[in-house]
Design goal:
about 170 residues
Length: about 170
């Protein structure tokens, strides 16, 4: 339906198109179509930059970071997530901050830097808690538990993972 909406849109260079194209990129990325995802998100980013929409620029930077991370390009992912995080902080966008901190933690974890992963996750968790975003809390708890476990702190890792699982069951996200 997004493709059809784009084909009939009255303003092909507008913000609605940029957001829709970015969303199509995210969907393609979720399906493992990284080349298509990257192309769509870059198109959205170019429109967002032309329009001066900082939030969409941050969302697209994060989207490109997710693609880079999924393709094990961790340096690029870290740079994109950091750019997005800086923008979300400037905008006061707490959900964006929590997600980018979580993303940065995952990149650090995948690179074996458990201390850095834990630091990012521990910064993200209180933000998500303050928002009452139970899904994000659950994700961060699980990632934080894994990082502690990988660092050899098995009891702490297990406790956090148990908390994530309990929350996931309660909210129906298992």
């Amino acid at each position: 339906w997004l493709e059809r909406a784009l084909a009939t849109e009255a303003d092909p260079g507008g913000l609605a198109r940029a957001a829709a194209v970015g969303r199509l990129g995210a969907i393609a990325g979720d399906q493992g179509e990284f080349d298509v995802a990257r192309e769509r998100i870059r198109e959205s980013l170019a429109l967002a930059e032309r329009l001066g929409d900082a939030r969409l620029i941050a969302l697209d930077s994060r989207g490109l970071g997710i693609i880079a991370s999924n393709q094990s390009d961790f340096e690029q992912a870290r740079a994109l997530f950091t750019t997005a995080l800086d923008t979300f902080r400037a905008l006061g966008d707490k959900p964006g901050q929590a997600r980018c901190l979580n993303d940065l933690g995952l990149v650090a974890e995948r690179q074996g830097d458990h201390d850095r992963a834990i630091a990012y996750q521990e910064e993200a968790l209180p933000i998500a808690r303050s928002l009452g975003d139970e899904h994000q809390i659950c994700v961060i708890l699980g990632n934080l538990g894994g990082a502690y476990y990988d660092r050899g702190e098995y009891a702490r890792g297990e406790a956090l993972s148990d908390e994530a699982l309990t929350l996931a069951r309660r909210i129906g996200d298992t």
